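Continuing the series of single-chain predictions for the mutant panel. This is the parent chain; the variants come on the following pages.
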Amino acid sequence: MSRPASGGKVRMTPGQASRARLLEAVLNLSRVHREHEKYYASAPLETAVRLHRHNRMLLALADRWTAVDPSNRQAISPFEGADDLNSDAAIQLDGVLFLEGEGRPAELSLVVAELRVLAQSSSDTGDWLATAMNASWEMTGALLEIDALADVLGERHRIICNDWLAAGMNTLMGHLLSRAADLLDRIDFAPAAVRGDLAGARVVPRRLYSAAELVARAADLCGESAALVHDNERRWRLFQARVEEVARGASAP
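Parent structure:
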């Protein structure tokens, strides 16, 4: 038993103090990461919508360029639209408009730049989350000795598993989007170059189909990642409530 200290207060044993500090840390982690995950349960869905829009734009161009006969019309103004290359869907989705006197549309350059930014962000998120889950797994092992948490340890480990899976998805998304951008950067989008390809082997639309496939898979992974994190909400609530209850008991005389 712990012995009363001066003033009638009860002093914690070293073991009790250590357990109280552990519960305090676990409660802090539960509280802040539960709130943080509310963002990551929805933000990836917004990213998925943007990626699906880019996917449909690339498919629209690929479909158009697979079937169209390249034009040899001489334009008077460099700002005339390249009717054989333009797709109404691509213009409406991402503003991608081919003009006779210009090269790659500025909007298409923005799409490629966004893919690279999202690729780097996804890779960074995946690396950070994998490291965090490895640390969380090790720290959760210390809770195995606390009998009062026995029935919620499954919830805590499931949270870690979900986040670890989401980490891998983010890493894969980074690879997919980076490779899609690489594919698009290999295409010369100047109207003359595209028409030359369409008059020959039509490699460009095939590259567009491949880039669209990679972007689509990355978009799907965004949604799956968000679903995994969303699945944690009830588990966090149950686990946090139990830790608060046990922490109150650990700090009581």
